[in-house]
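User: Run a structure prediction on this.
Assistant: Running it now.
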Amino acid sequence: MTVKLNKKALDHAKRLVRDGKVVKDSRDDWSEHAPSAKDESAFLDKHGRSEYSKWFLGVDDDHPDDQKGHYKFPIGDFKKIHRCGVISAESRAGQYDYDDIRDALGKLLEKIDED
């Protein structure tokens, strides 16, 4: 699996954090706050792949970019960044040795927690 940092999504996430569009939830809230597959499909149908991709910090080149499986490490609900999503993604990126993604998520978490 070839998963790389999605720089467009990282830039989008930084803007959202800067603009205060963050839910500062608890570490274990992601299972309840993560968008469902139905929510993902609805957002993708309405806004297209370019906007959809901005919510995932990783892209997997083993999957075509027109499939949801191409996008990895979700960090928000398509409205706001969720702190719990960033923590979850950082942990999973570390487990799979995607150091660039893990490090980017760690820095993003630092920005979220600055306030």
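The chain is about 55% helix and 15% strand.
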